[in-house]
Design brief:
4-stranded antiparallel sheet, two-stranded antiparallel ribbon, 4 helices, structural constituent of ribosome
Length: 155
């Protein structure tokens, strides 16, 4: 499932309880469609670059909320009920493009080395010990090694 940001710009006079009710309705809608709300941020009251005209007046401020969610691609069509929400000034759904997760995040060579790092037999390979010695030579002289008793020894 792709990752989306849903930006909600709410009228400035809306109370926190009503704002949380709106956020809860959106998150329940996403959850019912097998989506997951991953993050939520409140940016508080923001000054707008221009007035947004609604039936009850023109607004130059708004409360901005960001909801990050993993949802099905048809979530955009399903959130159009927000157009009828009188507490909202605007809403926007932004899809995260080219976002990769897990081993997809790493290139193929990196992924192979990451997986082999956790293989039990590779813990005791001589190749890794040689790499560790090379790293120690490159480090500062002020570092200390620790013996089996946990006592520092000069290295």
């Amino acid at each position: 499932m792709p990752l989306y940001d849903c930006m909600l710009l709410v009228k400035p006079h809306v109370r926190k309880e009503a704002l949380m009710d709106l956020v809860a309705r959106v998150s329940k809608h996403v959850y019912r469609r097998n989506g997951v709300l991953t993050n939520m941020k409140s940016f508080g009251t923001v000054q707008l670059g221009y007035g947004i005209k609604k039936l009850d007046g023109r607004y130059y401020q708004g409360q901005l909320m960001q909801m990050t969610m993993m949802a099905t691609p048809n979530i955009n069509k399903e959130l159009h009920y927000l157009n009828k929400e009188d507490r909202l000034l605007r809403w926007l759904l932004v899809k995260h493009r080219d976002t990769k997760y897990g081993l997809e995040f790493l290139s193929e060579d990196d992924a192979k080395s990451e997986v082999s790092r956790f293989h039990p037999s590779s813990i005791y390979d001589d190749d890794e010990e040689e790499e560790d010695e090379d790293e120690d030579e490159d480090s500062d002289d002020n570092e200390y090694d620790v013996d089996q008793g946990g006592n520092p020894t000069e290295g």
